[in-house]
């Protein structure tokens, strides 16, 4: 299969990454994380008081597969800011503790950021996307 | 089931000059502190990738989780 093979799911993930300034791919939801590492990443972002989009990768294994193909990062969670992979839970926590994460995500001055969290979730309903 | 010692050996073999401290009593969740001169000049992201690449295919599988801290020797 060539790289030209249409891959709507991968496109949807790439779109979600580029359209959301801060987006966290995680297991579960910010309200109900399904993994301690994802919970840690959510807690870190919430501590910075920034709004962020999130995608639950659990409903379809292909989400994780495609995400890792895009990011070249094997594990979950994965935090993207401004279209760039910041890292997984270890890096996110380290950056938080050093104060760098606040700069990267533009906290706390960016409190007026538009609320887009729902957008990515709608985009990544693989059932809708792929039929 | 991999052991912490096995992970340590594999990291130190794959990254010559590196030292790794690995813990993971349950055999699936590991914590590693890796120090390597090869990390110099690389971003944290790249440093983590260098270590995780060693276990490509196993992360999320037989190695459920690998918590990483990377350091450059001073």
Automatic annotation (TrEMBL), chain A:
SUPFAM superfamilies referenced in this protein's UniProt entry, alphabetically: Thioredoxin-like (SSF52833)
One Pfam family linked to the record: Glutaredoxin
InterPro entries for the chain: Glutaredoxin, GRX_PICOT-like, Monothiol_GRX-rel, Thioredoxin-like_sf
A GO MF term: metal ion binding
Keywords on record: 2Fe-2S, Iron, Iron-sulfur, Metal-binding, Redox-active center
Every Glutaredoxin domain range: 22-86
Gene3D superfamilies: Glutaredoxin
Entry-linked PANTHER family: GLUTAREDOXIN FAMILY MEMBER, GLUTAREDOXIN-RELATED PROTEIN 5, MITOCHONDRIAL
Protein's UniProt name: Glutaredoxin-related protein
Organism: Patulibacter medicamentivorans
Organism classification: Bacteria, Bacillati, Actinomycetota, Thermoleophilia, Solirubrobacterales
